[in-house]
Amino acid sequence: MQIISTVAELRQRLHGETSIAFVPTMGNLHEGHLDLVRIAREQGQCTKGTQSANQQAGCGVGCVVVSIFVNPLQFGVNEDFSRYPRTLEQDSKLLAQCGADVLFTPSEHDLYPQPQQIMVELPPIANELCGAFRPGHFRGMATVVLKLFNIVQPHLAVFGKKDYQQLHIVRQMAAQLNLPLEIIGGETVRASDGLALSSRNQYLNAAERTEAAFLYQTLLQMRQQLLNKEKDLASLEKTATEVLSARGWRVDYVTIRAQADLAEPQAGQHKLVVLAAAWLGKTRLIDNLEVGLGQ
Fold first, then answer.
1. Using the 8-state DSSP alphabet, how is residue 190 labeled?
2. How far apart are CA 62 and CA 19, in angstroms?
3. What is the pTM of this model?
4. Distance between CA atoms of 259 and 265, rounded to whole angstroms?
5. What number is the average pLDDT over the span 71-95?
6. What are the structural domain ranges in the chain?
7. Distances 101 to 2, 3, 105, 269 between C-alpha atoms, Å
8. Do residues 70 and 81 make contact, with C-beta atoms less than 8 angstroms apart?
9. pLDDT band for position 118 (50/70/90)?
10. I need a labelling partner for 173 at 20 to 30 A (CA). Which of 47, 140, 208, 228 fits?
11. How far apart are CA 18 and CA 46, in angstroms?
12. Strands of the 283-292 sheet, one edge to the other
């Protein structure tokens, strides 16, 4: 695996590649990130045949690029940019073992050689859910992702479903800006007790870590109630919020939305998603579960 830190060197390395799969990250990698890299490796193959067949076709098995960059544009004034865990040495070892071909580690100056005054303008959904509690977060995320897409020029990019709203916004950006790439969503990877893996989980103390799994249990219960034909969505949301609050959580939101556009569900919609964001102590956790109702 090559480690490249400048835009110019990366463009030179990728020149002539016919199949590039890309996984953008902020580092401090865990099994959830590595699963996205495996998906990129699998999906990045330009044919369905064997490695030798791919090579005979003239396109190899594809080039998997992973970036690590803690993006200041998507952090608020009082958020954890300065203390966000940075573990580049360990991350690079994990990526080499996982089959990444290139690790791109740009500095802030590499990606923002000038003050970033041109930003991506997003639809109203970017100001709802997590966007309502993290103003400007998704605009900063989308801006750096678009810059990385322009630098890497991938044929596909992989994002985790744990950040469901982020995945939706990136998909909309790619579609509406006619970006020539496919966006693939990777399933959420969980610990044995169901807690969605996240770099921020390490902020939790021992008691909080035990309690953290209750967020997933809450979403499971809501999903089951939906599958049991419960129609009063507002009541489900209110009850879940009250139960979490009673256990010491500070709830930003628990809500049920349509998978397609993250709008409030309309009658007859069968593909829903239950989303939640809540604080345990000083740690903000997010999670979601998709729900497919019978026709």
1. B
2. 5
3. 0.92
4. 9
5. 95
6. 2-186, 199-289
7. 6, 9, 13, 42
8. yes
9. very high
10. 47
11. 8
12. 250-258, 271-280, 283-292
Q: What is the mean pLDDT of the chain?
A: 93
Of the candidates 28, 40, 98, the residue with the CA atom closest to the CA atom of residue 65: 40
The backbone torsions φ and ψ at residue 104, rounded to the nearest 5 degrees and listed phi first, read: -100, 120
Q: Looking up tokens 């740009």, which residue turns up?
A: 106
The Cα 29–Cα 70 span in angstroms is 12
Query: Which token pair is 130?
Result: 């997590």
Section 130-159 average pLDDT: 98
What are 217-251's pLDDT values in tens digits? Answer: 999 999 999 999 999 999 999 999 999 999 999 99
Active-site amino acid positions: 33
Which two three-digit tokens encode residue 250? 């500070």
Model confidence band, residue 44 (pLDDT cutoffs 50, 70, 90): confident
Alpha helices in the chain (DSSP H): 7-14, 31-43, 51-56, 88-98, 108-111, 130-133, 137-152, 164-176, 206-227, 233-246
Residue listed under structure tokens 């859910």: 129
The distance from CA 162 to its chain's CA centroid, rounded to whole angstroms, is 6
Q: Using DSSP, state whether 167 is helix, strand or coil.
A: helix
d(CA 274, CA 120): 27
Q: Which residues contact 266 (CB under 8 A, 6 or more apart)?
A: 258
Question: 166-215 pLDDT, tens per residue?
Answer: 999 999 999 999 999 999 999 999 999 999 999 999 999 999 999 999 99
Name the superfamily (CATH) of residues 2-186. Answer: HUPs (3.40.50.620)
Q: 199-289, what's its fold?
A: Pantoate--beta-alanine Ligase; Chain: A,domain 2 (3.30.1300)
